[in-house]
Amino acid sequence: MPDLAKIVGKVEGLPTLPSVVARINQLIDDPNASAGDINEVISHDLALSAKILKLVNSAFYGFPRRISSMTHAVVILGFNSVRNIALTAFVFDAFDTGALPFGHRNFWVHSVGTAVTADALATRAGLHIGDDAFVAGLLHDLGKVRIPKDVLTKPGKLTDEEWVVMRRHPVDGARIIYESDRQLDLASAVAYEHHIMINGGGYPGRHFQRECHKASKLVHICDVYDALRTARPYREAWESDRVLANIQSGAGPDFDAELANAFITMMRQWERRVAVVDDHTPLPHMSPTATTPPVGTAAVVAGPAAESAEAVP
Ligand SMILES: [Fe+2]
Ligand SMILES: [Fe+2]
Fold this sequence. Notes:
By secondary structure, the protein is mostly helical. 51% of the residues lie in helices and 3% in strands. The chain has helices spanning 4-8, 19-28, 35-42, 46-56, 70-77, 79-94, 104-124, 132-139, 149-152, 160-166, 169-180, 185-193, 214-229, 240-250, 257-270, and strands at residues 274-277, 298-301. The longest helix is centred in the middle third of the chain and has 21 residues, at 104-124. The chain is globular and about 50 Å long. Mean pLDDT is 80; it is low at 282-313. Bound molecules: fe (ii) ion (FE2) (2 copies).
C-alpha cells in the first residue's frame, strides 16, 4: 500500500498501539520464532499475561487441567491469537475514557462484534487474509478516540460542523494504526476505507474514485450490521431481519453485492447462534471457530459444527 503513508500523513498527539503488538507481529513473521520468544515479550506486560492465562483457562477452551505456564498457553492459543488478545485488550483500554455515547464497554463490544463477523465472513467468502479480517474489524473505529465527548454523546442530529469532526475518525484511525505498526497496513487501510461506498459515496472525501480493498468492503458490511443491531442514544436496536433487508437493498451501490449476499446468507444461518457473553454467563456446548474470543467477554460465532447447539441465550 505505497500511497498509505501519504494519505494518513504524520501522527501528532495520537495514541499508539502497544509496542508488544509490533514485537509479536515481528515474531509471527519470523519462521525461527518460538513460543518461548513470545513468552519473553509478553512477560514484561503483567496485565496482558494475566489476561492470556485467564482466557486459556476459561470455559471457552475447557481444558481439564489448569494451564499455568505462559509458554504452554502460547502453544495452545497460537501466535496470532496472542497478538489479537493484546489488541483486544488495547481497544478496551483505549475507549475506557467515559467519552463514549453508549458506554466504552458497548463500543468495545461493537469493535469485537465487527471483528468476529468480519473474520467469519472472510472465511465464508473465501478471502485468504488470515487473521487480518479480525484485526481490521477490531481496529476499524479506533479513530473515534479523538472525537470530543459532546459530539459522540449527542443524542440528536449532528450539525454540519460536528459531522466534519465525526468524519475524521477513518483518517485518524488509519494514522494511529499505520504509525504504530507498519505490519498492520491492511488494518490501517480498512480503517481509512470502512465508510466508503461502492458508488464512491461516504467518507472521507476523495477527489478521485477509489477502489477499496476487499477487506474494507467486508468490514463495511459487518460494521453497519453490528451498529444497526445495537441501540444508540438516538434510536432503538433494529431487528436482524430489518438490518439484513437494509443490507440487501444497498447491495451494489453501497455494499459489495457478492459480499453482501454472502453475509446475508451467513447471518440467516448463524444469527441465532451469535452471542455476547461475559464471565458470568455459562457457555453453551459449541465448537469455537478459529476466531479468538476476546478477553473478559467472548463473542462467539458458532459455525456449522455447532448445528445441534441450542440458541445462545
Ligand atoms: Fe466508523
Ligand atoms: Fe463502527
